[in-house]
Structure prediction request, 448 residues.
Amino acid sequence: MADLNAIFAARVPRYTSYPTAPHFHSGIRENTYAEWLTELPAATSVSLYLHVPFCDTLCWFCGCHTTVVNNYAPVASYCNLLAKELAMVAKTLDGRRTVTHIHWGGGSPTLLTPDDVGRLSAAIHEWFDVAPHAEFAIEIDPRGFGGDMAWALAAAGVTRASIGVQDCDPKVQKAINRVQSDAETADCVALLRAAGIGKLNLDLIYGLPYQTEDGINRNIDFALSLHPDRLAVFGYAHVPSFKKHQALIPESALPDVAGRLEQESLIHDLLCATGYVPVGLDHYARPDDAMALAAREGTLARNFQGYTTDTAPALIGLGASAIGALPQGYVQNQVAVPIWRAAIEAGNLATARGFALSFDDRVHRHVIERLMCDFAIDLKQVRRQFHLPCRYFDDALMRLQPLAQDGMVRIEEECMTVTPGLRPAVRLASAAFDAYLDGGGARHALSA
Prediction:
């Protein structure tokens, strides 16, 4: 097998969408978005993503759109406008729609007060019909999390919580400006379970400064002691050209590509040895968890929040920088809160850019999503499904040849499989089907 260090030094997208966000353009604005919403058939179910772009401290590893606030006034005002945006979108849809999945992300959604959690949940129920089986997930910062918030989330209908842990080593925490004790995390878990929110995910990160094998072992031991249903184990994306605060992290303390691969492999072995099932590129789940079942059945999906069991045809993004995915294409709200705020206050949808999908885009999107979820693709079956000519994928197969020669993938006729044990190679394989990769000028993270 070729030098893995050189191969995985390639920088390619994480493919939470296709085409990826750097290729969105300003030709898609509020009028287009409104038209796309009105075109959704009345029976179309939707999922909702609400973005809360505020934190009380800035984690230096963060790649999200967020702002540090020192008082609650701008957050309270933002919540009022989120409720208004919900109403605007619902009215544009022209009829109540059934919601099958809700996700609140950030930033730190738990920076909201319990009252505002209740107000936003009430606004959702005012304008949409939330299905009885709907999953309502929220991202949680355990620091400062209290029992009043746990009960407020339960009352709002939250069914799943994703708890940010990242790393347990104080030296690593200091280097990324995310100081969080094990006790804070364990208390948060206990409070959520006491409130009846029993579906819990933990988020961990490898590739951080000063991480060691012993530290990784301790992180996994601590995570397993909390008995989560799922774990998301992300590779840190160090792109200070995109997020300037990442320059505060000492690059000399970051592991090289070989070190990252060793960390990923160690985590994989530790979690699989305790019965967790690998799901997609970076998730693990209990064998009876819905995500593990979806992976086994071939129904796992991928969107801007990562891997998901959500199969709604339309994802509606709400809040500054939020991205939506509709059958016609993608839309993204204004990233800057003041610009988003001005649009909503004026009674306008805050769409800043997007992408209308062509037929070829839909084909490549399908291939990339199935690859990212299943680690294999039968291109002959895809050609039949989309009525494609025989040589449609010849260019992509040619681009895959170096990966096949290096042992990253196996190609038999038109069936391609990522080599077992080399899960990070799926991003490289997916990139072979990306018609826009060389034209975006975007700076992506390491593929390992």
